[in-house]
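Continued from yesterday's entry.
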Amino acid sequence: MIPSHEVPTDLLPLLESPFDAQMAFSYPRESWSRWLGHLGQLEPFIDDLPAALDRPTVTELVATHAQKDPVSAFVPAMIWGHGNSGYGPYRVARVLTQSNTPLESQVDQSVLRKLADGYRVAAADGPIAGYYRMNNEAYIKHLGPAFFTKWLHFSTAATATDPAGVAPILDRLVLDWLHDHDITIRAGQTPGYENYVSLLSSWGKPYDLGPAQVEERIFRLIRDAQEAEGNTEAL
């Protein structure tokens, strides 16, 4: 286990006070449709998505589609995860097809099974079990922890009855923020993610907040810092 850490002083006010969720953001719909539209029925699905996405909207989409159509649940989670980045559509198409030429390929059926498996395990057994599954038996090439924790986040947000059961996202931005606060998490392995969840849980418990709710507040701090520096790429 990592040593206990007091709540960072810049995070504390966001835990103590009412918190307004991140506003929905727009994304390059045409690029997503160009790279993924040929995969099954994704072109009309992407065309029908809201023009702007936030966490509650993506959670609802995942809840609606995950069990019968994992791809239609996975895609909005990845759109949200990549924000306005120009490389997101190609990378997600490569994940789904397991091909470096995704425009010439179709969805790899093993990816469907593994996404469904990660969703099922996380929903039934919690974030740590979901992380272990996605990092081992349900490992998908090109889908590392930074983005499969986004899949797990929305999967558990769609199914959990308690905030403690919602998986927090752990990506490079969060790792850098923790490092800036003298906290080192060993990324890429289940024990590291378990330590991260434990840390956020300890910070949130006095305020009746689950680990993902703490993580969302960390993202707010990251976002505010980016805006102050003139970098407005969505998180």
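--- second protein ---
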Amino acid sequence: MTRISYLGPAGTFTEQALIQFGIEDAQPLPVDSPAAALNAVRAGDADYAVAAIESSVDGTVTSTSDALVEAPGVQIYGETELDISFAIMTRPGDTLGSAATVATHPVAYQQVKNWLAENMPNATLLPAASNAAGARMVAEGEADAAAAPRRAAELFGLYVHADGVADLETARTRFLLVGPKGVPTARTGNDRTSIVFQTPNEPGTLVGVLQEFAYRGVDMSRIESRPTRKVPNTYDFHVDLVGHIDDVPLAEALRAVYMRTSQLVFLGSWPRAHGEESQVDQRRLREAWQWLERAKKGM
């Protein structure tokens, strides 16, 4: 069995992403945060972790982004995307009009807050560790209503009043497959590479780093600064690049960046997900997983 940690309990979107990766003989291990999922891999309690990294509505999932660099020993091997919409649920017999509280994850709240304001204006938000945890809060009497995946209502015996709820119909979330440090997933020609670096506190150092990518035509799809939380006024720069570490321009850029930075962490190169999941994308996920398993056996 392949042990895979994820933000639980059962019924979360992260669980759906885990299923979508199509990993054979997967043994899901629910935990209470993305950091806990990654730490389970570091500790050897899980073979892989699945964690959300980016919402098209609310941006980067900072808890995952921070956890990737807080301790060494993990690497990204794949990604997938889900269309995101919610079911609004209560205990059987309750009504939305009588609900004084609604439980959901804060990121999820950003995707349904307009609907809630229009349809449940008197309900107060109760932040939950996950969307499915919000559904569990309703089942246990700690909240009156929840915004969660429909599967959570089935698991916790709740009644669904509205389904497919999303303030933006195009809402999507990207999820990562994370494992121990190892050989990167094989190049596909449509890949993503992620790094985190720090620069010396000198004028022009960040510009110099970014120019190394520009000189070689390497496209950045994301750049974000986060506090290191170790030394005041110091920052990690999280950068996603279009391409694979086996691409010559990208590899040359990383060598040049290494010389300009005070710290550089390679988080992985892996196949990119494409918009709506297609049969081709699912095949790519399966091929990446099979390649990764072969590489592990050869280590």
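Residues 279-298 form the longest helix (20 residues). The two ends are 19 Å apart (CA to CA). Will compare against the first tomorrow.
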